[in-house]
Design goal:
DNA-binding; mainly alpha; homodimer; elongated; Arc Repressor Mutant, subunit A; two-stranded antiparallel ribbon; two-stranded antiparallel sheet
Chain lengths: 161, 161
Amino acid sequence: MQMKTGVEQSVYAILLLNFLPPKAVLSGEIISKQLGGSPTYIQKILRKLVNADLLISVPGIKGGFRLKKDPEDIRIYDVYLAVEGKQSLYSSSGIFYDMLNLKEKDICLLSDLMEEAESSWQSILKRETIASLSKEINNNCPKENLQMLKNIVNEKMVYKG
Amino acid sequence: MQMKTGVEQSVYAILLLNFLPPKAVLSGEIISKQLGGSPTYIQKILRKLVNADLLISVPGIKGGFRLKKDPEDIRIYDVYLAVEGKQSLYSSSGIFYDMLNLKEKDICLLSDLMEEAESSWQSILKRETIASLSKEINNNCPKENLQMLKNIVNEKMVYKG
DNA sequence: GTACTTTTACTCGGATACCGTCTGTCCGAGTAATTATGG
DNA sequence: CCATAATTACTCGGACAGACGGTATCCGAGTAAAAGTAC
């Protein structure tokens, strides 16, 4: 039971795209180069984010990706959901019913508990957004390193039209 | 990212063993028959619970398993831990450091958040125990079905010595 | 009847096979800006 | 100079290979109660 690395990659990819000025995009290749993972796989992850309406993709030459929403409106939970899907952490296999020969699925002892736990877990991930994480970066990272990354983004981005 | 079915099996196996009178044991085969899973695999799960000090195992003829602790002292989280291990749900692959060229692992943006979320998740699983779940069963299940299960346990259990 | 041996029914833990999922790669298709070409 | 065609550099999404972990099976070893055996 471990979170996919794709979630981590997604969050940082989005944080990277958050550096872009309006209307500019960054190609998947550049993004993957900055993240450091395998390029083709990160492209796949980016497409998931597009399908989840978190990113906009621009095809064709000078194409690439940019945020679709304001960073305040992108919750970390949304990113998780886009990559992991909406299935819950725990899914009962019905042992309880079988063991007690219950006909109706009235109560599921563990399911209720697990759902409460997962809900509690989600609430933390819903609280934080790309904007809040970005702010945290600005406050806690050496300005130098941060500026260096921003410079790369500004150098590699392209405007459409 | 899904919880192992072994966790569910473990919880219900323990709830089953909670019906036993003191000093009595139930063999792995009987337990697996009640749970309905594959016998050999459930034996493996039971051994994990023994290693985690949740169960006591008695080898030899008339051997089997019984609880090692009071049901009040077995938290659902303990069961989870015994089966899933103590690794956290999220583990950073260090993208953040690489991206910003940080030397020291001062802050990990996502790790802190994910740890908080997991901690919140765990607190729910730590709150509930085998005793509390058992109580809930007694309150919410048809007495008939419950008694039928208890009868099977009483029939199949063996005393040592 | 007592001491000893064998049988029996369990647990223990390692080795291994199977299978689904996550990771990673590849390719053809679609798209749009740029460049080349022809008049 | 303008219109059209070819090139280029992207994304899109499906197909597929590889790695890994959870599930499942099997086996020999250890253990202890019960049954059998010898005296």
